[in-house]
Amino acid sequence: MKATYTLSHPVLPMGASSKIDLLVTFSAEGAASTRRSLNLGLVIDRSGSMAGAPLKNALQASRELVERMGPEDSLSIVTYDDAVATVLAPTKVTDKAAIGKVLARVSAGGCTNLSGGWLKGVEHVNSQLSGERINRVLLLTDGQANAGIRDAGQLTEMAREKSSAGIITTTLGFGANFNEDLLIGMANAGEGHFYYIQSPEDAAGVFGIEMEGLGSLVAQNLEVVIKPASTVKVSSVLNRYRHEARGQEVTVGLGDVYATEPRQLAAELSVQAPSSAGPTTLATLVFRAQVVVDGSVRELKGEVPILAQLAPAAESAAVLVDKNVLTQTSRLRIARVKDQVIELADKGELASASKRLREVISEVSLLLDKASYEISEEVEQLAHYAQRLESRTYDAVIRKELRDQSYQAGTRNRGDLALRGTAGGSADSLDAVSDAGGGIVLECVREGGKLRVHTVSAGYDPSFNVQFPRSVREEGVRYVVDKLETSGDGTFYRVVGNIKRLGAPGQTRSARSQAAAPAKTGKASKVTASSAADLPTTTSVGTGVIIQCIKEGSKLRARVVSDGYDPDLNIRFPRDIREENVLYVVDEIITMANGSSYIACGDIRRLVQ
User: Fold this and answer.
1) CA angle at residue 65 from 63 to 70, to 5 degrees?
2) Between 180-189 and 152-164, two packed helices, what is the crossing angle to 10 degrees?
3) CA–CA gap between residue 495 and residue 481 (Å, rounded)
4) Measured between alpha carbons, how far is 139 from 121 in angstroms, rounded to an integer?
């Protein structure tokens, strides 16, 4: 493993105070080391809210994960709803077909005992624990912890304890209802990763990213101590890594380093430069990490002096700011602002949250001529979120996008994880035309968890991204724009002039607002069916709510298992169609005035898995 660094300002004015950014990169050196064997525990949420596409895609992604494993690897699989089940005890991955059959038998059930499932997965990984292996639990959920241990602080502290014992936790959140603060907290404390799977179709790609990293591990538990010179102070660590100040020194825990994903550490330094010209040492970095050599764990240590040049003020000012450092540290500072915006929005201060985003847009926009597509895309994302706040359409999905973008920017160095999010855009606000005329045709496509716009018209590079308003991006839609200009660095396009939606021949219309969601009736459900078997069926939940019947003594009790509802409350639900462990989808749930129970409203369908 090697360490390199870059300064935002490599030449500083002598005898003056300066604030500069330091960017350190830890990466693989030479040929890749032998792949370390895996000891994985896969923990899958099979609660009722996972029914349909979420569970189907999670299981398919799990099968693809199995295909990436080898006979030297160990795997256990735990599923959980109210109850926790070990469907595959720790075993070597020698019979992938048999493991596939185990996964095929998993179906959706009741509530979400997240803690029970995770702890059972930890137990299985611990039974195979080895310092020479990669020991990790992958925890997948789409909901709130509403059974077992529910306290987020307690679960986070438990993840920290398991990490100290050598068992890492990676968390994966599906859909719109999971607790992102809990999953990010567990991933941070557990020294693993967090992933937001916004659409079920993205599951396989996310599992692939995690497995790619595990298969290219270079070093574990990388820890860096920044030892500044007497005239230098570490003003802040810009990443989201665990760090601690001890006097002037700052210790930072960076976690694992992968051949496919170098680790970066960014810090802001305050420098009081000496008065003489020439090289000066700003700080010394002391690092250590664990590596496996010839099957044994060894500690790797190193030191890197951080040097800058001192020169007269005029000479220093003539040296350009390093563009890469500017891009990376801007990304990290924007990530912090996104967290601030979430805090304001959580308190209902939407106007203040939007104002903060608009301020950042103004600041970053000054850099656009020099910026990469990444920073230009940041501006479009920020404008979209500001608009959602201003229109009071900020919701759980937007919150998750903001939190995920902040987390990935602060902890990872992968372009395919940066700025993910597909919610809230619509081309309905645009005028529609049926002929491009002399305009340029663009198309919005889904790439992983992102919506990207590319050119369709001849004469342009279709591989280039187009800087385009996030608020009108809609997958599969084509647009007509007046003009495109190439960015200053020649790597992407910017739209100039009007944007219109391109429809089919003969289809033209003026812009219109998005259609409102269907109105809820609020009327209690009535059925003519005499049993669950007589109900109409559905294979998807859509915007409905999931009901499950369970046996309690001699009675069949209906309960709501969709997230956001209390499964302990009774619900008024037709008795004739109740059948143990059957899942139902109803249009709407309303709460009784006294808050003591629910009423099922609208149509009732039996969910077929």
Assistant:
1) 105
2) 20
3) 7
4) 8
